[in-house]
Structure formats: C-alpha cells, structure tokens
Design a protein that fits this description.
By secondary structure, the protein is an alpha/beta fold. The chain is built from 14 helices and ten strands. The radius of gyration is 18 Å and the shape is globular. The two termini are 25 Å apart.
C-alpha cells in the first residue's frame, strides 16, 4: 500500500509574513498556537513572523522557534497522520512535536535555546558554510580532508554543504571551483553541523534530558541514526547528539522510499525540501504544503 511521509524544513526556510494568510483564513483554529508561543517565550513571536524585521527573524534564536511554530500550525491544518516523518536539522524538532513526543511548549523552549547556544558557540564571522554543486560526495570529502572543513549536509547528489572555520570553508570552495565544481557561501551566522558546534551540543544536552519524551504517533527518521525511531528513550539520546551530526537528507529520502513511501509532503514554510526531494528521486511524489492545501 502507498505510504506518505511528512517532511519538515530547517533553518533558512523562514520568511517575513509566513503563515499570515492562513491565520486570516483559519484564525479560530490557529490563534491559540501563537498565544502559547507568546506565553512560553515571553515575546511576541507572531509579530516578528508577520511583520519582521527580516534581519531579526533570520537570527537563529528566533528563526528556529518561528519555523517550528509555522510547521506545527500547518500540520494541524492538514489534519492527517503520516506513515513516517523526517526533519531537516531543526525540522526534526518540528516532527517530534507533531508526533506527540514532547509538547509544543517544550519544543519552542528547546529550539529557542538551541539557536542561542549555536550562535554563542562560534563568534559571528569566524565560522562559515558553503554549498558545493557539481562534485560527488567522495571528491567533497577529499577537499574537506585537505582543508579542515567538514561535510554538514548531504542534501542531494547535486548539493553538498560544508561547514567549519570560515577560512577552511573558503579554501575548500576554491579547491572545489578548481575541480570545476560550484561553490556558494551561505548567509548563515554559524557553522552548523560541524564539530565547532560541540559546546552548544554539550550545553543543550541536559535541557533535552529534562524534557519528558513519549512514544511517537508515527516513526520519525533520526538525523543521527538515519533510521525510523519509535522508542522515546532512544529518540531522546539521539537528539542530544544532533547538533554536530551530519544531515544526510538524500539518504533519509531513500530510506523512506525503501519503507514503501511514495509521497513526501513538506510541512512548513516554503518548498526547499520539495525541490530537493524531486532531485533525489523522481519516482517519489514530492509536494509542498501549498500544493496539498491550495
């Protein structure tokens, strides 16, 4: 039987005004989510999401709870339970909230802190990330070995993101271009999913361990294991190692396909994952939230 997986985007998918149209259309259904966010965070996240400024929304400590909140609201509006779920980095937290592993309040608290700790781990300007296109994984791995950069995201066979000290990733970008690849420096404030994030991971770990984890209503692909997980204790332990783990998105999509998934629906702002999913495997139907809800 055909199976559906919901996929949840990560940082970079946020934009000013996301969810405003849905708020106006379904106000009675979604207003309570914004109110809960305001109560737990102590500031008006709804105002920041709807009105900006963009520079503030882009800051990781605000972008992370904003994307999680938008994703949870869209999951509520879709009103269906998927067979599986997966999240791209931060998106794993959105998936865990939607699956009932922990509450929206705990999710918002964790990702707001996660964003703060990730930024504090490396001063602005000292770390960087570069997306490399037109080179295969092995070539990028060799470049990283030469420069001290690290592979952060295996997004698709056509797009691999590297992370680390800014000098190292820029050297790697130069080597990639010398090998006829293409490198684009990403507008990020920290070198996510690299070993430089270890201090953030260690500081977040006790906060994750304080939260009560419940069994998910549907299995979620773990960023760390790459497998569908259903045991709450294992999910919790794996999540404590997530900040420095490589995000192997292309592998997660193919793992979902091996489990019988034929349809991927992106639940969150934009269609970044939908575009990636179409590049990873053309046999899988990839849809954005807008395409599903109209």
């Amino acid at each position: 039987m055909a199976k559906t997986a919901f996929v949840f985007p990560g940082q970079g998918s946020q934009y000013v005004g996301m969810g405003r149209e849905l708020y106006e259309r379904y106000r009675t259904r979604v207003e309570r989510f914004y109110r809960r966010a305001r109560e737990v965070l102590g500031f008006d996240l709804q105002e920041l999401i709807f009105s900006g400024p963009e520079e503030r929304l882009k800051l990781t400590e605000f972008a992370q709870p904003a994307i999680l909140l938008d994703s949870v609201i869209k999951f509520e509006l879709v009103g269906q339970k998927p067979d599986y779920a997966a999240g791209h980095s931060l998106g794993e937290y959105s998936a865990l909230v939607c699956a009932g592993v922990f509450s929206l309040e705990d999710g918002l608290r964790l990702v707001h802190l996660r964003g703060k700790l990730m930024q504090e781990a490396v001063p602005v300007g000292q770390g960087g990330m570069v997306a490399i296109m037109k080179l295969d994984y092995e070539k990028v791995r060799e470049i990283c070995a030469q420069t001290g950069a690290e592979i952060a995201n295996y997004n698709s066979p056509e797009q691999i993101v590297i992370s680390g000290p800014r000098e190292a990733v820029l050297r790697a970008k130069g080597l990639a271009e010398a090998m006829r690849g293409k490198g684009i420096e990403l507008a990020v404030s920290a070198p996510f999913h690299s070993s430089l994030m270890k201090p953030a991971e260690e500081r977040l770990k006790p906060e994750i361990e304080r939260v009560k984890f419940s069994a998910p209503r549907f299995p979620i692909i773990s960023t760390v294991s790459g497998e569908p997980e259903s045991d709450p204790q294992k999910i919790q332990e794996l999540l404590t190692r997530q900040i420095t783990a490589q995000v192997r998105w292309a592998d997660y999509v193919l793992r979902l396909k091996s489990l019988g998934v034929t349809r991927l629906v992106e639940i969150g702002p934009g269609d970044v994952l939908t575009k990636l999913n179409k590049r990873i495997d053309k046999e899988i139907e990839a849809l954005s939230f807008t395409q599903v809800m109209g």
